[in-house]
């Protein structure tokens, strides 16, 4: 191997290790220190639900388009966006134009509605 090729291989290996490390730690502290994970899940369960209006529903694919306000739990500003749903059954009884309250879970670049209900 030439010196340049060796250096390139080392640089790529370091970059890959760096990306893997940051991917495991992106968005905060994720180590389990005697119940820290339980606290994080409990906090997420108590998060204020976001407000939105259903623009489109696709029950076949389990996708829903929502014009929403800020979603504090995932630090998302107001916008209109397509979300997957955790369970297609959640879409029963909902229609375009409904005002809703909902919770979202982020997994990398994917956002999934974990709970949704008509707003009062």
Explain this structure.
The protein is globular, with a radius of gyration of 20 Å. The protein has helices at 3-25, 36-45, and strands spanning 50-58, 63-68, 79-85, 99-107, 110-118. 28% of the residues lie in helices and 33% in strands. Strands 1-2-3-5-4 form a five-stranded mixed beta barrel. The protein contains two helices and five strands. The protein has two domains: 3-42; 49-118, OB fold (Dihydrolipoamide Acetyltransferase, E2P), CATH 2.40.50.320. The chain is of the alpha+beta class.
Average per-residue pLDDT, rounded, comes to: 77
Output the radius of gyration.
20 Å
| Computed structural class | alpha+beta
CATH class of the largest domain: Mainly Beta
**What is the helix tally?**
2
Rough outline: globular
Low-confidence stretches: 14-44
List how many beta strands DSSP finds. 5
Q: Could you give the order of strands across the largest sheet?
A: 1-2-3-5-4
CATH homologous superfamily heading of the largest domain: Copper binding periplasmic protein CusF
Span between N and C termini? 69 Å
Q: Describe the biggest sheet?
A: 5 strands, mixed, barrel
**Level-2 CATH architecture of the largest domain:** Beta Barrel
Could you please say which CATH topology of the largest domain applies here? OB fold (Dihydrolipoamide Acetyltransferase, E2P)
Helicity level: 25-40%
Which percent band covers the strand fraction? Answer: 25-35%
Series of H and E elements: HHEEEEE
Number of domains: 2
């Amino acid at each position: 191997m030439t010196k340049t090729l060796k250096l390139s291989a080392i640089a790529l290996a370091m970059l890959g290790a760096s990306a893997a490390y940051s991917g495991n730690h992106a968005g905060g502290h994720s180590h389990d220190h005697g119940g820290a994970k339980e606290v994080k899940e409990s906090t997420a369960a108590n998060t204020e639900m976001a407000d939105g209006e259903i623009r489109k529903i696709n029950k076949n694919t389990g996708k829903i388009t929502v014009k929403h306000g800020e979603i504090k739990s995932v630090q998302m500003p107001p916008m209109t966006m397509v979300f997957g749903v955790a369970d297609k059954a959640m879409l029963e009884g909902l229609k375009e134009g409904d005002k809703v309250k909902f919770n979202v879970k982020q997994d990398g670049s994917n956002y999934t509605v974990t709970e949704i209900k008509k707003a009062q």
